[in-house]
Amino acid sequence: MTATDRSIELINVAAQAAADKLAHDIIAYDVSDVLSITDAFLLASAPNDRQVKSIVDEIEERLNKELGAKPVRREGDRDARWILLDYVDIVVHVQHSEERVFYALERLWKDCPELDLPEEAKATRGKAAEHAQSEEAAAAEEIREFGGEVL
Q1: Are the C-beta atoms of residues 7 and 39 closer than 8 Å to each other?
Q2: pTM (predicted TM-score)
Q3: For the residues 58-68, what does the mean pLDDT come to?
Q4: Is residue 130 left, alpha or beta, with left meaning phi > 0 and alpha meaning psi from -120 to 50?
Q5: Count of other CB atoms within 10 angstroms of residue 95
Q6: What is residue 63's DSSP assignment?
Q7: How far apart are CA 19 and CA 119, in angstroms?
Q8: Distances in Å between the alpha carbon of 147 and those of 35, 140, 141, 150?
Q9: Side by side, which strands form the sheet with 82-86?
C-alpha cells in the first residue's frame, strides 16, 4: 500500500506552508505500510515556541483554504513545544528544535519511504543545525565582548 493522492496533496500543501514560515528540516514519510491509522507523517521544527505556533497556524489555514481540510485533532498547543495536527490521511508534527533532537522521530520512521516535497521544503534540510551553530557563535562573541572567557 502507498500514500493516496489525497495524502500526497495534503503533505505538499502542508510542507510548502511550513517552508513559507521558515520551518527547519521538513521531511515526510509514507507510513501507510506500517500504520493503519494514517498514510503519511510530516515533520518540521522551529527554534522557538512562537515560531512553532506560527507554522502550525499557517499549515492549518492553508490546508483549510486550499483543500477544504480541517484537522480532526490538534494537540500540544499549550506549551507549543510539539504540536500535532491529525488530518486522518496525514499527521503533521511541528516540534521545537530541542524536542525534535530528543525524540528523533526520523529514527522511528527511517525504514519508511520518504515522500518527495516541494523544493522550498527540501531546502530547509540542515537549517536547524545551521541555526544552532550561529546561535552558539553569537553567544561566544557576546561573552568575548564582555571580557569573559569561552570554554
Answers
A1: yes
A2: 0.85
A3: 98
A4: alpha
A5: 27
A6: H
A7: 9
A8: 55, 11, 10, 10
A9: 24-30, 40-46, 90-96, 82-86, 73-75
